[in-house]
Amino acid sequence: MDEDRFERGVAALQSLHDPVRRGLYRFVAAQSHDVGRDEAARAVGVQRGLAAFHLDKLVDAGLLEVAAVRRVSGRSGPGAGRPAKLYRRAAVQHEVSVPERTYDLAALLLAEAVDEAGVEPALHAAARRLGVRAGRQERQEARPLAEVLARRGYEPYRDGASLRLGNCPFRDVAGQLPAVVCGMNLALLEGLLDGLGAEGAAAVMDPEPGRCCVALISK
Q: CB within 8 A of 150, min separation 6: which ones?
């Protein structure tokens, strides 16, 4: 990890120390749409001005980005109001490791080995077993499915009767070996649903830019 990347990661983590700022980040990151200051302020129960201050600090830290500056009303001309900033989670990934660890490199090497050896079925079986074990453990805690997914970094959000996953926890490796990693992810989530006893949901491949390749739909 180079020094600049390390410093950016530290700064990003420090910016989340404030509870209001942390709540705003979590809310914006969990939405499937760009978020305005008024909506964010209502979500965490603070005044609009305070929300605006913290949202812009999150942009400075590289955790959020300004998606657009436009009139939320959709109108133009006199009386339409001032243009407003809309925010979304930044695409950049921040990591801090002390001492330095390179798990992403190990993951990439393993994924390449699986691809070259043609042993995807073994990988899928292992992923499903891990998912089942994790699901059974979460079932004992009686956590809802969306919370289980959020705890694993998927950033789920509702889309009608489906749960879309706004983040891929394996994004860096998936971008280089999508067939291997997305298949593994699908098997992992299928196992998780089995372990949870979530009989009303099914994991399916549904790739879209900017989100996880898997979605959870109602059977």
A: 30, 156
Is cis: bond before 156, omega within 30 of 0?
no
* Domain ranges across the chain: 3-89, 104-218
Q: What is the pLDDT of residues 110-155, one digit of tens each?
A: 899 999 999 999 999 999 999 999 999 999 888 889 889 988 988 8
pLDDT 10s digits, 13-31? 677 788 888 888 888 887 8
CA dihedral 5, 9, 10, 12 (to 10 degrees): 140
DSSP class per residue in 6-75: HHHHHHHHHHT-SHHHHHHHHHHHH-SS-EEHHHHHHHHT--HHHHHHHHHHHHHTTSEEEEEEE-TT--
Q: Which residues pair with 214 in a beta bridge?
A: 205
Q: What is d(CA 156, CA 40) in angstroms, rounded to the nearest whole number?
A: 18
pTM above 0.70, yes or no: no
Using alpha carbons only, give the angle 213, 111, 168 rounded to the nearest 5 degrees. Answer: 25
Angle (CA) 191-197-200 rounded to 5° is 100
Q: Which helix (H) or strand (E) holds 216?
A: strand 214-218
Could you give the CA distance from residue 21 to residue 25 in angstroms, rounded to a whole number? Answer: 6
Per-residue tokens: 197: 């006893």
Tell me whether residue 217 is exposed, middle or buried, using C-beta atoms within 10 angstroms of its C-beta: 0 to 12, 13 to 18, 19 or more: middle
CATH assignment, 3-89: 1.10.10.10
The CA-atom distances, in angstroms, between 13 and each of 52, 58, 89, 97, 119 are 19, 10, 15, 12, 38
